[in-house]
Amino acid sequence: FFKAVEHSFTGIFSVELLLRVLAAGIVRFFLGKDWAWNLIDVCLVIVSFLELGLELLNVGGSHKLTYVRMIRLAKTVRIFRVVRVMKIFRPLRILVFSIMNTLRSLGWVLFLLLIVIYSFGVLFTMASSQAISSGSSSDPALLRQYFGSLWMSIASLFQAITGGMDWRFSADALMTLNPIWVSLYVGYIAFSQLALLNVVTGVVCQTAMESAAQDEDIIMQARLALQEKYVAQLRRLFGDLDADSSGKITLPRFQSRLQDSSLKAYLDALDLTTDQAWSLFKLLDVHETSMIDVDDFVSGCLRLRGTARSIDIHMLMYESRWTMNKLSKIMSAVQELSSSVGEVREAYEHCLHLAPSQGSHSLTLQSPSSQTAVRAAAKQHL
Q1: Residue 153 belongs to a domain with what CATH number?
Q2: Which of 313, 334, 355 is at the close of a domain?
Q3: In a 10 Å sphere around its CB, with 0-12 CB exposed, 13-18 middle and 19+ buried, how is residue 86 labelled?
Q4: CA 288 – CA 298 distance, rounded (Å)
Q5: Residue 291 bridge partners (DSSP)
Q6: Domain limits at 167?
Q7: 83 plus 119 within the same structural domain
Q8: 194 domain residue, yes or no
Q9: Tell me: the pLDDT tens digits for 199-234?
């Protein structure tokens, strides 16, 4: 049964991968921003088919068992894909993603730590070798145990600052040389513990936080979670305003409820100002029905939340420029129309002066030939 289920999931996973390749294209699939996850998915499909092939070939002996174990171990990478997709694993995803992005900084940290340990190790090894060869050390065996060679000195210094051993033991070995070397050793311990390791911890933590803040999926999940929480708070607030559970809020009811100091404090906590209840109600009443339902209330509060963003200001400037351009075109059209009307009026007055008298003018205008003459004169004047 479990084999059948596993083979079914392998087929479904293969079809899903094929559809993703066809939808995104081969180049975008392997060279896009999610190329690493896509490559992992391809490897998982290949590993699943390899396991299926080994079962069909019926390879016997311990070789089959070894191959199957290796393949099943490789298939555990599917866990990372589940962690990436499911929102419930968001804290674990942040930890894994932060650790992966701090590996580069951690490498430089280890390199710096190695330089410091190597420098002090060379000094202590040279001093120990000279003391042992000259016989000036009171306990050569103890000195050889911790600083007998360069690698032993490096190991002792590394264990002293990482908790592998009590640094007092290696300090007692240096005490057989000279107290000056003990003072230098204590200075190394103080520098490593108080300065170097604390700086290293700070750099790694900062890198982890920056990498987590730059991950698109983590940012999207955080924003969606924050918006869902904010919408839930707004719906509870609407329930407090809608005391009669009618599903609507009127302006008088809205104004009376905003007088409550606790409600005003709650709105301020949601980044919503309540200085003018009437203005706030009109901004929320987008349908101009003098009533607000829960959907209008939530969507309106989401728009009015916080201060104006840069995109809001630029959008307002764009709409102002668009309105001014339209008004300029309308004013130009009105001016052209006014000029045309003035010219027609002047032409009409000019035609009136062509008539010999008022009576003959009336008669002339009534005849078709006179009307044609007036039109010709007006056209010539224009």
Answers
A1: 1.10.287
A2: 334
A3: exposed
A4: 16
A5: 250
A6: 99-215
A7: no
A8: yes
A9: 888 887 887 777 766 666 667 767 777 788 888 887
Q: Is residue 117 very low, low, confident or very high in pLDDT (cuts 50, 70, 90)?
A: very high
User: Residues, the chain, total?
Assistant: 382
Token pair 């050390």 is at which residue?
137
Report the C-alpha gap between 122 and 150 in whole angstroms.
6
Query: Backbone dihedral region of 166: left (phi > 0), alpha (psi from -120 to 50 degrees) or beta?
Result: beta
Residue among 174, 172, 149, 170 at smallest CA distance from 161: 170
Q: How far apart are CA 240 and CA 44, in angstroms?
A: 52
CA 179 vs CA 146, 159, 167, 171, 185: distances in Å: 17, 21, 15, 10, 10
Look at the alpha carbons of 183, 185, 190, 191 in this order and tell me if their dihedral is positive or negative: positive
Distance CA 234, CA 267 (A): 9
Look at residue 376 and tell me if it is in a domain. no
Beta bridge partners of 250: 291
In a domain, 8, yes or no: yes
The tokens describing 266, both together, are 């709650």
Query: Are 143 and 169 within 8 A, CB to CB?
Result: no
Q: Residue 110: is its pLDDT beyond 50?
A: yes
User: Residue 48 in contact with residue 54, Cβ under 8 Å?
Assistant: no
Q: Do 78 and 109 reside in the same domain of the chain? A: no
pLDDT digits (tens, 9 = 90+) for 326-349: 998 999 888 888 888 888 887 777
Same domain assignment for residues 84 and 122? no
Phi and psi at 224, nearest 5°, equal -65, -40
Residues 104 and 211 in one domain: yes
**Smallest Cα–Cα separation from 251: which of 292, 218, 214?**
292
Dist CA 66 CA 110 (whole Å): 36
The kind and range of the H/E element at 365 are: helix 358-366
Can you say whether the dihedral through the CA atoms of 15, 18, 22, 25 is positive or negative? positive
Are residues 118 and 164 located together in one domain of the fold?
yes
Same domain, 18 and 120: no
What total of structural domains would you count in the chain?
Answer: 3
Same-domain pairing of 68 and 116: no
For residues 141 and 80, membership in a common domain is answered with no
Q: What beta strand segments (E) does 123-239 contain? A: none
State yes or no: pLDDT of 244 exceeds 80. Answer: no
Give the separation between CA 295 and CA 289, rounded to whole angstroms.
Answer: 14
Specify if 357 maps to a domain. no
